[in-house]
Each structure stands twice: as structure tokens, then as C-alpha cells.
Amino acid sequence: MDEAELVIRRSQMGKSARSFVTAGPDALDEQAAGYWLALSGAPSPDLNVAFVDSGDPTVLEHALRVTEGSGFPSLFVLAGACRDSDLGARWQHVGEMPFMIRALQGEDLRLDSRVHQAGVDDFDAVSQLAAEGFGLDRQVADVVA
In the chain, what's the furthest Cα-to-Cα distance? Predict the structure, then answer.
């Protein structure tokens, strides 16, 4: 997948994240070229996400200022031209997230045979992945799965 397509997909992620952030009174939802913020105000970093894929330092500075100013525990995701070294010492690198897509209708785009829609038979695997990927207790991961 080329970089232009990735930028489109990343923007779509931001648009879809609005659905879970707009309900709360403290929610902050912002999207522009090169970044999106989906800050719900919940006390969990998994529900407050900032995403920057622009190499423009002013875009990164703005997203950081708004995210830090919110006071919400947040995940700050960098992609594209951004590097974690651009954030400074206040932020801790916690790992990397693979980016996978699958067309829901029409032609599938170069499907990775390792990726498929999870079903009932995949419950244990999905729960285990959620537990490991998000540092959750297995009982909490079972609810997610």
C-alpha cells in the first residue's frame, strides 16, 4: 500500500473514532491535515488517542499541546514521517501497532492470509491478543473479546 493510501486510511480511523469521543461532556474531537485527536475524557489512555502522521513540526506541536492540555491520560500515536524522538523525554515509547486493513465490500486489497474476520471459534485467541496487546487482565480481555 502506498503512502497516499495510508494517509487516507489513517484519516478514516480518526473519523470513526469520533463515535466514542463525542458523548462525554469533556470530549475533544479535532481532525485536520496530518493529525486527529479523539479524546473522550475517560480515565483510560485507550479511550483518549492522538494520532499524527505529518512531518510538519507545527502539526506535532499543536497536537501535543492540545493533548497534554486536556489532562487526560492518552495514547499518542505517530506514523508516517513522525518519530518518537520528536516527542521529547515527557513521553514514553510503549511499542508499535501493526496496521491492517480488509475491504468490507468489493475487491479485497492484497489480503494477508493471516488476517481474517474473527468469529465465535476465535474467542480465546482474540481475548489473549487483547490481553497481551493492551496489558489487560484476562477477565477484562474476555469482556472486550
Answer: 47
